[in-house]
Amino acid sequence: MRLALFDLDNTLIAGDSDYSWGEFLISIGAVDEKKHRAENDRYLRAYTAGDLDVAEYQAFCVAPLAKASREQLDAWHRQFMREVIEPLMLPKAQALLAEHRARGDYLMIITATNRFVTEPIAEALGADELIAIDLETDATGRYTGRISGVPSFQEGKVIRLEAWLDEHPEIERAGIYCYTDSHNDLPLLEYVDHPIAVDPDPTLADMARARGWPIISLRR
């Protein structure tokens, strides 16, 4: 079975789910607006520049989660899906997923956003598998603020993918497709046979043109 990889943020959805989650927490009064937005904006700039400290960022993201019960978090996430994520869904992205599904491909979303935020989104999109940043929990099931295992960011996406492929010999290693908007995914794009830039950031757009990679839009 052939594999089709998809980044999530600004690729399959028209926005950044991690950043949007922070804005959602502000909107419901779960965090201090001024402080949280300033940090959220700072980390987004670092990600865009390609120099994000992913462990530090996840500690920031998880801090509000550690203060709430799982029931409260699940209720917040259902509201987040309805009010924030569903309007960001892209019909062309859903059509692309359906096209690969019709070919019999195995659909994986591979993202540098944490699993808490992205798992319900991946389910809504009908992905077969999700590789995301896994978060450590304590004995009570509350998030500690630390990452569990290798973070799926930059080279970490390749490390996580190779480990997953080792566990799934039924998936072909040849002919893998990869769709992403971000230059942070260059290691993954270089790993696969079919790299595709999707509404790419300026750095990735330049790289794609230089290397002859297809550039597509799921927004226009």
From TrEMBL:
InterPro entries: HAD-like_SerB, HAD-like_sf, HAD_hydro_SerB1, HAD_sf. Coiled coil: none annotated. The keyword Metal-binding applies. Keywords: Hydrolase, Magnesium, Metal-binding. It comes from the Bacteria. GO terms for molecular function: hydrolase activity; metal ion binding. Pfam families: HAD. The keyword Hydrolase applies. Signal peptide: none annotated. PANTHER family: PHOSPHATASE RV3661-RELATED (PTHR43344:SF13), PHOSPHOSERINE PHOSPHATASE (PTHR43344). This is Phosphoserine phosphatase. It comes from Zymobacter palmae. The lineage of its organism: Bacteria, Pseudomonadati, Pseudomonadota, Gammaproteobacteria, Oceanospirillales.
